[in-house]
Amino acid sequence: MESAAAAMRRASSQASLADPDDFDLTRLLNHKPRINVERQRSFDDRSLSELSLSGAGAGGRGGWGAGGYGAAGAESYESMYSPGGGLRSYCGTPASSARLSFEPHPLVGEAWDALRRSLVSFRGQPLGTIAAVDHSAGEVLNYDQVFVRDFVPSALAFLMNGEPEVVRNFLVKTLLLQGWEKRIDRFKLGEGAMPASFKVLKDPKRGVDKLVADFGESAIGRVAPVDSGFWWIIILRAYTKSTGDMTLAEAPMCQKGIRLIMNQCLAEGFDTFPTLLCADGCCMIDRRMGVYGYPIEIQALFFMALRCALLMLRPDAEGKEMMERIVTRLAALSYHVRSYFWVDFQQLNDIYRYKTEEYSHTAVNKFNVNPESIPDWLLDFMPTRGGYFVGNVSPARMDFRWFALGNCVAILASLATPDQAAAIMDLVEERWEELVGEMPVKICYPAIEGHEWQTVTGCDPKNTRWSYHNGGSWPVLLWLLTAACIKTGRLKIARRAIELAEARLARDGWPEYYDGKLGRYVGKQARKFQTWSIAGYLVAKMMLEDPSHLGMISLEEDKAMKPVLRRSASWTV
């Protein structure tokens, strides 16, 4: 996550916001929110089905009832009103602790203090959290910027604690940045592109703050962040779900912003798959790591953003047309990922026996994957109980690596079926040492090394084996694992992971990542007091203490979305 400071000052994205933008921001922020709790409670009619906690405390799997998760009649976490919007915590005491009347873990207060130190303001308004507050580090690089993806756990923490102002400000300001002209050299990026990050600069001449945004022109490899727009939509839905404030999502500028993001992703091209084609380094793994093509992280976020957009778009002339396109894509995308990205013991055995060079619609091996490409580690790694979505599927290529973020988001968005979600959690339990180890959670497994590392990463000195994105352990992923555990009723897994993190995180100075097969060592280039490590812990802790918070970030499987599978037009009898 580095970029040259000088490059950030390029004229293409340096201009301060124009007066009309400032007027819009002030008008939106000063406008009294219209709170509609009744609508908020039913904001997701297609929300998480009943999820029972009975037996979950002991780590048992909740039974899959005919109506969805858990016992029939139990109240859904998803449809419950998230109480964060009604309470605000002061003096570092989390609102959830005050509401539920228990003594918080000593680490919680320390984490809140650290999170608040990362806040940055723009013209007197809290706007976001910078990536890290590590005063021991020599060169700041771009860790003093507000990254869209890094802000996600911070946003959730503040929402859960009854402090939505900074989240609202962030959503509005990044939406205004979307309207900037975005150029890399002589090429103009699409209108829907959201920035990877932005920085607040003091203008000594005018005596006011201004923003410098990075849309990829300063990033390593000059790759635009595909995930930024998806995360923005997900945060907007979380804000609406938490506060009951519909005015922001329904504002014309927000409706337009959602449509621009969706239009850029749904544009027709030469694709034969409903998945989104991406360059390497376009998401959390923002360096060359062989995730080009159709990475599961992007497909899961894409799916979740589509569903969130569908819930928030107004059914007017423009919105209705977009909603129809979204519904069509959701049906195709869910079928494709559930069918072709999924691997368990039985599916692996089927791939192992695949024939190649099959032609026509009768082909079983639709992507012409050679069984010899199955890595040796997978044959021993795959348990008889469990499964997961592989990292990438494209013609003649399956990346069998496990990627934590994509699988957890697939559970939360209900891209994974209930059975698949349960199998993913089974895999985490069965392969705890490999996927969690001594510090949750492995960003991917296994690491690549030797000649493969040379060719895939280009001999990247930061992504050496079991380090950084190449099999490193990232504490920020704790909140995603915890959310997935709550949704699947596997609270024992979440508690065990949080206890592991609590044993070391504060003592080690809240590092960005850990190295080694088990995640035992603080990362060789890891920044200390990494904001999303801090916020990820807080979100995981608050969700476990009050599972109703899950409703901000989880979606139930939409029964109406399931497509009626028909033979294609090319099928002949």
TrEMBL record:
GO terms for biological process: sucrose catabolic process. Signal peptide: none annotated. The keyword Hydrolase applies. It comes from the Eukaryota. One of its GO terms (molecular function) is sucrose alpha-glucosidase activity. It catalyses: Hydrolysis of terminal non-reducing beta-D-fructofuranoside residues in beta-D-fructofuranosides. Keywords: Carbohydrate metabolism, Glycosidase, Hydrolase. Gene3D superfamilies: 1.50.10.10. The keyword Hydrolase applies. Its EC number is 3.2.1.26. It is an enzyme of class 3 (hydrolase). Belongs to the glycosyl hydrolase 100 family. Invertase that cleaves sucrose into glucose and fructose. This is Alkaline/neutral invertase.
